[in-house]
Design a protein that fits this description.
It is a single chain. By secondary structure, the protein is an alpha+beta fold. The protein has 3 domains: 96 residues, TATA-Binding Protein (2-Layer Sandwich); 79 residues, Endonuclease Iii, domain 2; 117 residues, Hypothetical protein, domain 2 (Endonuclease III, domain 1), CATH 1.10.340.30. 44% of the residues lie in helices and 13% in strands. It is built from 14 helices and 8 strands. It has a 6-stranded antiparallel beta sheet with strand order 1-2-6-5-4-3. β1 and β2 form a beta hairpin. α10 packs across α11.
């Protein structure tokens, strides 16, 4: 994680931490993305305030995040947390909002791209809202395979509420994602009352077991350095194909050139932007994305946002 201490201000009464965000950034645009589906179970958004649990090295911290000026992030801690833990929470939020990414290069050309100029204008200041936890990203990618987004959210909620932990605050439950340590101990039959396929249950448990034994870890993947090596390492895992691998590299490992070219949502967005009566072919997508090189993840994300 990039050192972001210079962007953080602790109020004198310790009630809030303020995070100075880099330009361009628009909190409301990102907030709108986060609340695009009412079935989301990992946080609550009410009156422009995000409330969520952030897991830090096994410690669960409940926070509220808002932005009175639509630029700086204000973080309020609703549960006790030491100063080192608070710093790690800030680092998590920094990564969640992808604030280390300099978007100037993306905007320089995207405003002139015939497929991106309209989404870029509408959603200027949008960041790729990520999933910093590798296990959660992999699970979400697998849950979403070959089903519609609404049903994927239903499966995630069932999974989280059965195997995750919750903090109750002011009468509401706020969930943390199930740990890979706990899921590694399960069998596919344990997941039978969650409406996912046996094969997806096997994939998720298998990934949890790889992580529990240390064979798979975020730092270990990133240490490979090379994009193709990381993609190959992910695809070698049962249940992970090129789409899921690139999704993980986009949302968790933060490669701006990750490109889930087989994504249905991308196809639908391109169909709309290109004015086609059908989904574009992969060759057509490769042709129109030639100028996206190095920024395929952000191009994809903005096109997703134009559709959902």
């Amino acid at each position: 994680m990039t050192n972001n201490d210079q962007h953080v201000k602790l109020e004198s009464n310790d009630a809030y931490i303020w995070i100075e965000t880099p330009e361009p950034f628009d909190f409301m645009v990102n907030l709108d993305y986060l609340q695009r589906n009412p079935k989301e179970c990992m946080y609550d958004i009410t009156d422009g305030i995000i409330t969520r649990v952030i897991d830090i090295a096994g410690e669960r911290v409940l926070v509220r995040i808002d932005s009175p000026d639509n630029r700086k992030l204000r973080v309020q801690f609703l549960s006790d947390a030491s100063l080192p833990t608070r710093k790690m929470v800030v680092a998590y939020i920094w990564e969640w909002f992808d604030l280390s990414m300099d978007l100037s290069g993306f905007y320089e050309w995207a405003q002139y791209d015939p497929l991106l100029n309209e989404p870029v204008e509408r959603f200027y200041g949008l960041r790729i809202m990520g999933i910093p936890d590798l296990f959660e990203t992999l699970c979400w990618g697998i849950l979403g395979q070959q089903i519609n987004l609404g049903f994927a959210y239903t499966l995630k909620r069932q999974f989280v509420e059965k195997y995750g932990d919750a903090i109750t605050f002011e009468g509401m439950k706020y969930w943390s994602f199930p740990s890979y340590e706990s899921i590694a101990k399960l069998s596919p039959t344990d997941l039978s009352d969650i409406k996912m396929t046996i094969r997806k249950s096997e994939y998720i448990i298998g990934i949890a077991q790889l992580m529990a034994t240390g064979q798979l870890a975020k730092k270990k993947l990133l240490s490979l350095g090379d994009f193709k090596q990381i993609e190959n390492a992910l695809v070698a895992i049962r249940g992970i194909g090129p789409w899921t691998a690139n999704y993980v590299m986009m949302r968790c490992l933060r490669f701006p050139n990750a490109f889930p070219i087989d994504d249905v949502g991308l196809h639908l967005a391109l169909k709309q932007q290109m004015g086609l009566g059908r989904k574009p072919t992969k060759d057509e997508i490769r042709k129109v994305s030639v100028n996206w090189k190095g920024w395929e993840a952000y191009a994809t994300f903005y096109l997703w946002r134009s559709k959902y």
